[in-house]
Amino acid sequence: MSINKSECEMKLFALNSNKPLAQKISKAVGVPLGKTSVSRFSDGEIQINIEESIRGAAVFIIQSTSAPVNDNLMELLIMIDALKRASAQTINVVMPYYGYARQDRKARSREPITAKLVANMLEKAGADRILALDLHAAQIQGFFDIPVDHLFGAPLLADYFLENHLDEDAVVVSPDHGGVVRARRLAEFLKAPIAIIDKRRPKPNVSEVMNIIGNVDGKRAIIIDDMIDTAGTITLAAQALIDAGAKEVYASSTHAVLSGPAIERLEQSPIKKVIVTDSIQLPAAKRIAKMVEISVAPLIGDAISRIYHNEPVSPLFNNRFKRH
Questions:
Q1: Which of 77, 105, 224, 324 is found 20 to 30 A from 114 (Cα to Cα)?
Q2: What DSSP line would sit under 4-68, residue for residue?
């Protein structure tokens, strides 16, 4: 649905998943966050009240479906329904982190494709557009029958490595075959070669390094992945790279899920720095000394402005994005 900005006011709302990021996006866009309240009934049911008129507005709702994933997902679905019933002209869902994205195919018999189920629910609730950041699998865009703008964290991560002159003698490493496209994107910014970790995963959240494809001897290895969950994959890869002669190892990821033993593993690993974004709000306990956090707010804010003004979002996909 096209927006005539002269007739349609922009409204920006945030739920509970990542209020600090929402505030930064609000500042980047230059539109204050709308007034809304999220409460719970005595039995735990979620209640949402929109405390200002949104009739005829182009509404952007910011919500990552990170942990607690089910609570955050239900908040989002209920908010979309409330916006639809309050006569918003368009409902644009901004999802810095898309939960359930790893369940994007049937890996075994009788498994659900939950990423598709989530897409169905968002559409059925009334979403008109999705703005996502580094989906675990690009094909998730095809799960929707509404427009999906898919942003990438690589330009922001590249900015950090270039500003700190870490592109010298660098090799960009994909921790598995599925991440080669992501690694190549970062490598193009850094003008560096790539290497690939050949691994197998005997069960979820467990991986074993098998081989390293590419030359890492004497190089500064920069691992890139879409997310760090339990950190098993990335710490195993880091040790394998050191064993293969890499002089330093850096890890970078858009989504810092950091569940279970992740923090302990990262602290004990040979990784020198872990560069992540604020797509997921991190508690103080997970902000270790070797972690560097980069904000995605300017990138998402620019994308929101472009969508509202009916301008192309594609320039944000592959161009280096200045954070300052």
A1: 224
A2: -TTT--EEEEE-SS-HHHHHHHHHHHT-PBPPEEEEE-TTS-EEEEE-S--TT-EEEEE----SS
User: ω into residue 32 within 30 of 0, thus cis?
Assistant: no
* Active-site residue set: 199
CB within 8 A of 260, min separation 6: which ones?
Answer: 205, 229, 230
Q: How crowded is residue 123: how many other Cβ atoms within 10 Å of its Cβ?
A: 17
Q: Which residues of the chain have pLDDT under 50?
A: 1-6, 323-324
Number of other CB atoms surrounding residue 284 within 10 Å: 5
- Phi, psi (5° rounding) for residue 85? -75, -15
Q: Answer yes or no: are the C-beta atoms of 280 and 153 closer than 8 Å.
A: no
Q: Does pTM surpass 0.85?
A: yes
In tens, the pLDDT along 10-63 reads 999 999 999 999 999 999 999 999 999 999 999 999 999 999 999 999 999 999
